[in-house]
Amino acid sequence: MGSVMRKVSTRSLASHKLRLVLTVFSVVLGTSFVAAAVIFTSTVSNAFNAIFDNVAQGVSVEVSAADRDAPGVPVELVTKLRDSKAQLGIDKLVENYGGPVTVADSSGKAIQTGGAPSVASAYLPPDQAIGDSMKLVEGRAPTAENEITINRTAADKAGLHVGSKTKVVLGTGVSDPIDVIVVGITDLSSSTGGYVGIQFDQQTAKDYFSDGDYVAVVDMTAVPGVSDTELRDRVHAALGDATKVDELYKVRTGDQVRDDEKAAIGDFLTIFRYILLAFAAIGLLVGTFIIYNTFSMIVAQRNRELALLRAIGASRRDVSRSVLTEALLVGVLGGVIGLGLGAAIAAGMLAFTKSQGLPSNGIEIGVAAIASAVFVGVIVTMLSAWIPARRASRIPPVEAMRESAVEPGAGSLRKRTLIGAILGVLAVAALVIGGLGEGGTRALIVAIGALLAVVAIVLGAPALSQPFVSVLGGLFEKPFGTVGRLARTNAVRNPRRSAATAFALTLGLMLVVVIGILGTSFKGTVNSAVDKGVKADYVVSGTNGGNMPLGIADAIRKAPGAQTVVTQAFAVAKIGGEQTYLTAAIGGKFSDVATITPIDGVVDVTGDGMAVDERTASDRGWKLGETVTVTSLTGDEIAVPIVGVYESSEMAGTYMIGDDLYDKLVPVESMRSAQFVWVKGRPGVSLGDLRTQLEDATAPYLIAQIQDREEFKNSISSNIDQMMVTLYALLGLSLVIAVLGIINTLALSVVERKREIGMLRAIGMARAQVRRSIYLESTYIAVFGALLGAVLGLAIGIPLVRTLAYWGLEGVVIPWSLIGGTLVGAAVVGVIAALWPAVTAARTRPLEAIVEG
Fold first, then answer.
1. Among residues 273, 812, 734, 810, which one has the least CA distance to residue 506?
2. C-alpha span between 691 and 476 (Å, rounded)
3. Which residues, at least 6 apart from 733, have a Cβ–Cβ distance to it below 8 Å?
4. Cβ–Cβ < 8 Å for 428, 461
5. C-alpha R_g of the chain
6. Which run of H or of E encompasses 91?
7. CB 746 within 8 A of CB 837
8. Measured between alpha carbons, how far is 467 from 492 in angstroms, rounded to an integer?
9. How is 761-796 classified by DSSP, letter by letter?
10. DSSP character string of 103-172
């Protein structure tokens, strides 16, 4: 009997090709994103691994600062290692100097890297260098202060060649732009994307990137007979107390350096993979409802067929296996096609990221991608079909004598509606309690409430659909008359099916509204902070959020129209064992360019003093005049007096420190940089003239952008908008599946109601009226799902924003235009989704439908 049932399953699929295509496509859309996430992240990971395989090549041991913001390894320790080379087993010892730079292209504009590094290092002759990651392939090595080499890919992109004159701006320190000449071209041994790498001679690099007290990185090779791990352990012991060494420095073998670099990018890619998989999960969840809906309808339409099978000897298990076999075939087919579509999506993502400078060595489809797509497709489809399969197995043979397809009626909704109502009450309670406070615990309560609310909607939606569609249908009954009444009846005929179809839109639009509330609330906070907190006429910042050399402020001060110029710089230190950023105002009073409201003491901090915002003072129990220990990244402990407490300020941050303390926390001049330079103009100078003067003053620095307050707000808001657009684009997957679900349901419903439609056509219903009834039915379902999603999104988004007040979010801003647009869009989606099923229904031939039914 098993082989017979398998034949029945395969022939059933083959004889209903349209139904098969619709069902497979719903699986494809869900699995394709899973495949795309795995393929994209594994391809990028492998490309980065290829680059990092060449990091620290030939290096036996590397010593660097434990924190990348620290100045490096003290010269006295390097001298100690150099003097102990023989005892420790060191062959070569190389001091590496370098840092971020901006290089001008042949037109005098900054070379755009697309986010890839743009760095300088020291050139060493082959007999002195360790490894050969950068080979000189054209020209000669730099020997003077104004000479550089540059990697070939950057040179080609910038239109530079041996003999070209250009400018280099050090990303940190106080130096002015440097006029240089390209004397050599280098090649890197791996894919580089938009990477820019220049080299100065050793002494020049040391002068630019060190004050003589620290070395950025020290590389060593071992003498024959000493392993890398042996040399590492000896060097670690030679540096002093083990605990202190581990706090301040990293002593690693070359293999460990490469592994750490790979792990760092691996962590980033893991987060990115989780984001993609989260949206894939949303698509799969929506697809699950569609597949469940599809198989429920298929089972209902095959009642007579399955009952006849029971009558001729098929057992319940045989019938159940028959339905699950169909699901297995659909899952495998959908998974395979989803893998192909996922590869195409990943290829598009890789093409975009490559254009932005990220490395890529071509798409790579591994076993993990193949297994994930097929596995997810099969599992999701089998789980979605399990309940319909059980239902099919319970069909008694007597059903073969009936004329109509039967599904569980409304009476079976009572239990699930009651459970949904209870969960709904618990969800409301959790959302209210969570929204009345702020912080991580409250956010967790809101998350629990959101989960309960979604489950409550899933269970209660069938019962809710009947009154909602009845009311909505009543509005359309007057203009559409009998057609509107018929559409309303069809929409509520099977509330389970209508609710499952609508849930696809509900989930998608719920997420759209939640993200919309978060995005507009963040933008509202930013706008409020700038409006209330900024006094300056212009803010000068680095392009792409990069830092600027402190020397840029001196150039700005020479502008005739600039009256007040204040540099905002950041120092990194540890307070109470926690690493944090401290704001320093250099060259003026921060209160002259920003609104800082003092609560106690002073906010224009000088010397070694520190002011803190009121929340930090309250959380840590600090009071004015108290002394706090601040630990620099070099391990120095500094006693710092609290000289002021101020109202929380987005502009000032959590801590404000004086110039002297900043110098102690960032001891190496070449590591100091400006985050922003705030500028107020002199009375009588127009803002247009001041902008022109600032643009002229900062032009040689290549990376400076001049913004007024509105532009500054918009630049921050645009970042939020870009993130939201990305999220909306990913959520578009669920909306596409939602539209597919409505099409699928209506198409199968038309097949199911073929005889009924034929009877209506026979008694005089026009084709246009048939189409109109399908349009209205689809619109009712779509608007119902969208309204549920909007309400659910508001119920979750509002308390969620309230919990984020602890992190500076001021208040809830509801995007009413977005919500209104989604509801209107849902109605449009309903009509669009119904186009094909409506045309199919309108073409039903009355006599054939009656006879076949």
1. 734
2. 58
3. 29, 33, 279, 280, 282, 283
4. no
5. 34
6. strand 90-96
7. yes
8. 9
9. HHTT--HHHHHHHHHHHHHHHHHHHHHHHHHHHHHH
10. EB-TTSSBPP-TTS-EEEEEE--TTT-SS-SEEEEEE----STTEEEEEHHHHHHHT--TT-EEEEEESS
Give the 3-state secondary structure of residue 731: helix
384-429: pLDDT as tens digits: 778 777 777 776 776 555 544 444 444 467 888 899 999 999 999 9
pLDDT digits (tens, 9 = 90+) for 475-509: 776 777 778 788 888 777 778 777 877 887 888 88
CA angle 406, 409, 412 (to 5 degrees): 135
Q: Contact, 656 vs 584, CB < 8 A?
A: yes
- Give pLDDT, residue 408: 42
Angle (CA) 264-269-270 rounded to 5° is 95
59: closest CA among 218, 184, 211, 221? 221
Strand duo 178-188 + 147-151: pairing: parallel
C-alpha 21/C-alpha 738 separation (Å) is 16
Distance CA 519, CA 527 (A): 12
Sequence letter at residue 578: E
Q: Using one digit for the tens of pLDDT, what is the confidence trace for 31-70?
A: 777 788 778 877 877 777 776 776 777 899 999 998 888 8
* Distance separating alpha carbons of residues 34 and 805, to the nearest angstrom: 34
Backbone angles phi, psi at 323, to 5 degrees: -65, -40
Which residues neighbour 786 within 8 Å (Cβ) at sequence distance 6 or greater? 505, 506, 509, 822, 823, 825, 826, 827
Query: What six digits make up the tokens of 262?
Result: 């790979």
What counts of helices (H) and strands (E) characterise the chain? 25, 25
Residue 267 main-chain phi, psi, to 5 deg: -65, -45
Instruction: Please tell me the distance from the alpha carbon of residue 652 to that of residue 409, in angstroms, as a whole number.
Output: 63
Calpha distance 528→716 (Å, rounded): 12
Strands (DSSP E) found in 132-276: 134-139, 147-151, 165-170, 178-188, 196-201, 214-215, 217-222, 249-253
Least confident of 98-112, 295-309, 401-415: 401-415
pTM of this structure: 0.74
- Residue 271, classed as helix, strand or coil, is helix
DSSP letter (8 states) at residue 534: B
